[in-house]
């Protein structure tokens, strides 16, 4: 008798696709994976098997579910740097709440939440405008061409986070270098660990000085007055805010300008006032989703989701760029359409770890884009777009240099 037909083998688990074929689009294989299932097997760089979430609804469900742990002891990342990653497989560094679960996470997050209210961010807006204007004036005075990253997209958020935290901006060369090393996949694990140690030593010194001086101002000084926090925790919170606070926004600003320059019809809708800057910012956040490799989680018990059972301890990567291009949530998702309602995107994550700096990042983008294009209406790339070096080698996608003229 003929042999019964075997059901087809499930597709071989694949590594995370990372090769982009277009500057603003995530690797195209991600869409194929999502069509297969919102949750597929993923092979991690060390060969072990875990899961990849590419569907919007499943991504949101994982991020909202307290059964998925964010503790660094269990975290595994789908794109490895050379050597053993110093941040994973070990308990969270003091203050690094992004690597903690409740109740430790809740305790630290509450300490920060008061400083990051929408109201406080609004009260920062005049300072952001002044910083933006000062850099645009300097760019105009020096004349074309300029590097939009070095002259604008990096210094603006660096200055803003320095003012918010009370970190001296004169020290930027060191902390910018350490943050860049932390987030660069080309840096070895040893280099990343040493950048972390230096950043921590620098912030510890600032916190200790803040504890001694009643005149110190800013968020770090406020935290330094909180007797329930250790110096190590405040320094760690400071290191996390300082590094996450400038590198990410710099990436969003530079890539956002580049995307608008490459989509002149969308840029027109911003500069003509047809679409308000808030909506443009939201759509750029969705379209660009700079956390390009997603965020790691681990189920602390068996969980059934999208028809699959994830076992306790298995590695999960929530691919934010794929979720934000899910046609089930955002029609025609690969089109930059600044007029769409992009709210609900996952560029800032979701759930208890959702980005605490999101209102600050939004305010910076909302102020910076219109001001830049109003000052330089003829702004355009000074090199062919294909020659703009993009940050595929960074945890956060961005632009290394963006030569512009006007
Ligand atoms: C968390 C994205 C700007 C501070 C996150 C997460 C994402 C994200 C996706 C969630 C990580 C996870 O769930 O594991 C972004 C993007 C930014 C941005 C796209 C810019 C456009 C900022 C800024 C700050 C900041 C300006 C600080 C001022 C933080 C902190 C966390 C976080 C402290 C951890 C929160 C927690 O674990 O409770 N961010 N971020 N981010 N972000 Fe941002």
TrEMBL record:
Q: Which organism is it from?
A: Streptomyces cirratus
* Family the entry assigns: Belongs to the cytochrome P450 family.
Q: Which CDD domains match?
A: CYP105-like
Q: Which UniProt keywords apply?
A: Heme, Iron, Metal-binding, Monooxygenase, Oxidoreductase
Q: Does the keyword Heme apply?
A: yes
The superkingdom of the source organism is Bacteria
Q: Please give the InterPro entries that the UniProt record associates with this protein.
A: Cyt_P450 (IPR001128), Cyt_P450_B (IPR002397), Cyt_P450_CS (IPR017972), Cyt_P450_sf (IPR036396)
Name of the molecule in the record: Cytochrome P450
Compositionally biased region (Basic and acidic residues) = 2-18
Q: Does the keyword Iron apply?
A: yes
- GO MF annotation terms: heme binding; iron ion binding; monooxygenase activity; oxidoreductase activity, acting on paired donors, with incorporation or reduction of molecular oxygen
């Amino acid at each position: 008798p003929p042999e019964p037909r075997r059901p087809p083998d499930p597709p071989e688990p694949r590594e995370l696709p990372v090769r982009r074929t277009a500057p603003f689009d995530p690797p195209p294989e991600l869409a194929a994976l999502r069509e297969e299932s919102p949750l597929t097997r993923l092979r991690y760089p060390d060969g072990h098997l875990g899961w990849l979430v590419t569907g919007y609804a499943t991504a949101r469900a994982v991020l909202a579910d307290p059964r998925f742990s964010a503790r660094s002891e269990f975290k595994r990342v789908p794109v490895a740097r050379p050597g053993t990653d110093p941040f994973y497989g070990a308990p969270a560094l003091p203050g690094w709440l992004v690597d903690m679960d409740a109740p430790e996470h809740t305790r630290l997050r509450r300490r920060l939440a008061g400083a990051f209210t929408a109201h406080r961010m609004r009260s920062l807006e005049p300072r952001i405008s002044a910083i933006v204007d000062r850099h645009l004036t300097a760019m105009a005075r020096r004349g074309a061409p300029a590097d939009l990253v070095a002259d604008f997209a990096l210094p603006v958020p660096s200055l803003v986070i320095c003012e918010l935290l009370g970190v001296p901006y004169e020290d930027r060369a060191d902390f910018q270098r350490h943050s860049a090393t932390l987030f660069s996949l080309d840096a070895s694990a040893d280099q990343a660990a040493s950048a972390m140690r230096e950043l921590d030593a620098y912030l510890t010194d600032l916190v200790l000085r803040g504890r001694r001086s009643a005149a110190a101002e800013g968020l770090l000084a406020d935290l330094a007055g909180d007797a329930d926090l250790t110096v190590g925790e405040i320094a760690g919170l400071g290191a996390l805010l300082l590094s996450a606070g400038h590198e990410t926004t710099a990436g969003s600003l530079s890539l956002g300008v580049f995307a608008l320059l490459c989509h002149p019809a969308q840029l027109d809708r911003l500069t003509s006032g047809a679409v308000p800057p808030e909506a443009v910012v939201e759509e750029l956040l969705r379209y660009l989703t700079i956390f390009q490799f997603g965020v790691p989680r681990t189920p602390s018990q068996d969980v059934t989701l999208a028809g699959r059972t994830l076992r306790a301890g298995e590695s999960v990567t929530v691919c934010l760029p794929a979720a934000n291009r899910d046609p089930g949530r955002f029609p025609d998702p690969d089109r930059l359409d600044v007029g769409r309602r992009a709210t609900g995107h996952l560029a800032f994550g979701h759930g208890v770890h959702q980005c605490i700096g999101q209102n600050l990042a939004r305010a910076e983008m909302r102020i910076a884009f219109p001001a830049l294009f109003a000052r330089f209406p003829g702004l355009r790339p000074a090199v062919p777009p294909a020659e703009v070096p993009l940050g595929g080698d960074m945890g956060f996608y961005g632009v290394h240099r963006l030569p512009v003229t006007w």
